[in-house]
Design a protein that fits this description.
Shape: globular
GO cellular component, one term: membrane
Pfam families: Glyco_transf_64
CATH architecture of the largest domain: Alpha-Beta Complex
Helix content: 25-40%
Family: Belongs to the glycosyltransferase 64 family.
InterPro entries: Exostosin, GT64_dom, Nucleotide-diphossugar_trans
Structural class: alpha/beta
Strand content: 5-15%
CATH topology of the largest domain: Spore Coat Polysaccharide Biosynthesis Protein SpsA, Chain A
Order of helices and strands: HHHEHEEEEHEEHEEHHHEEH
Largest sheet: 7 strands, mixed
Radius of gyration: 21 Å
Number of helices: 10
Protein name: Glycosyl transferase 64 domain-containing protein
């Protein structure tokens, strides 16, 4: 390559409702202080009030999860120039996350534009496709080595140009997925996804999305939820030029998404990433012990190490900043 590349619950929509919702949440955050003053936990009334608050919180959370997992989920696709298309959904997992995968497939298989779901199986007892409740074909691709590089392996059995790379612990609405697919069809040469990051500074440091928001721009899209051109992305990722990067990915068991961003940036003189804001996004790994990157500090340290190495190998991303709020439809606020 020539020199030139974590999520919490989000529930805002780009409309006036979101501002009212933010105001409500701000007021809600003040409730604990109010309760400490007016509710006495040692009294039976205090315990009753706290119990009712707890039950209400559980009910609210369950209704949110039901909204994501339940229903038919098959919102209408968005046409581009009057035409519709389909994509392949690809996720990578292993046996300890099977319970999550079943819910994942049940939900996303009902999204209108999904043609097939490909499960990259990295380790453990391989399930049968018949174990999944799916509205579309499910293919399990068993890998010999447990490597994050398998996510972008060239797969001649994929029949669509577009692939949605989606972590098995990310749940969002089908409407968000369909909007992302429409944006990718407008810019098929870009990584189009839902989790932006900004890489800058000296030394380079990996930071969360709020840093990109503060700086009003981004130059990286995490591929835990992103649309790609399967032929371009996979062939470039497995090129000889990217071999040193793949070696580091295996060494740290991290950063495959960071490497792909550098690969894309190195192949284009224009913007190589595009952001779409999801209305809802739930990271279900927060509810299990099978998360890949539960230790945030260690995770971020590894990714900062990757940034330094990839910049040395492939050049900087610092001068490739894209701004939020550039789309007329408001999908990138």
């Amino acid at each position: 390559l020539r020199k030139r590349s974590d999520t919490l619950l989000t529930w805002e929509r780009p409309n006036p409702l979101s501002s009212k919702l933010r105001q409500f949440c701000t007021r809600l955050n003040r409730v604990p202080t109010f309760l400490r003053v007016w509710v006495k936990p040692n009294s039976w009334i205090g315990r009753l009030v706290l119990f009712l608050i707890f039950i209400s919180g559980v009910a609210f959370m369950c209704s949110g999860v039901t909204y994501i997992y339940g229903g038919n989920g098959a919102e209408e696709p968005y046409p581009l120039n009057g035409q519709y298309s389909q994509f392949t959904l690809l996720t990578m997992t292993y046996d300890a996350r099977l319970w999550n995968l079943k819910m994942f497939i049940r939900h996303y298989s009902k999204c209108s534009s999904v043609k097939e779901i490909v499960v990259v199986w990295n380790k453990g007892m391989v399930p049968e496709p018949s174990e999944f409740d799916s509205a579309v074909p499910v293919r399990i691709r068993v890998e010999e080595q447990n490597s994050l590089n398998n996510r972008f392996k060239v797969d001649p059995l994929i029949k669509t140009r577009a692939v949605l790379e989606l972590d098995d612990d990310i749940m969002m609405t089908c409407d968000d997925v369909e909007r992302g697919f429409k944006v990718w069809r407008e810019h098929p040469d870009r990584i189009v996804g839902f989790y932006p990051r900004l890489v800058d500074g000296n030394p380079l440091k990996y930071r969360a999305e709020n840093y990109a928001r503060k700086k009003k721009g981004y130059n990286m899209i995490l591929t835990g939820a992103a649309f790609l051109d399967t032929q371009f992305a996979f062939s470039r990722y497995w090129s000889e030029e990217a071999k040193a990067g793949r070696t580091l990915v295996d060494k740290l068991f991290n950063c495959e998404d960071v490497l792909l961003n550098y690969v894309y940036a190195n192949s284009s003189s224009s913007s190589s990433v595009e952001y779409v804001k999801p209305a809802w996004a739930i990271d279900t790994s927060k509810f299990s012990g099978a998360a890949i990157s539960r230790n945030t500090n260690v995770h971020y340290q590894k990714r900062s190490e990757c940034l330094a190495k990839f910049a040395e190998l492939y050049g900087s991303l610092a001068n490739r900043k894209s701004k939020f709020k550039q789309r007329k439809d408001g999908w990138d606020v």
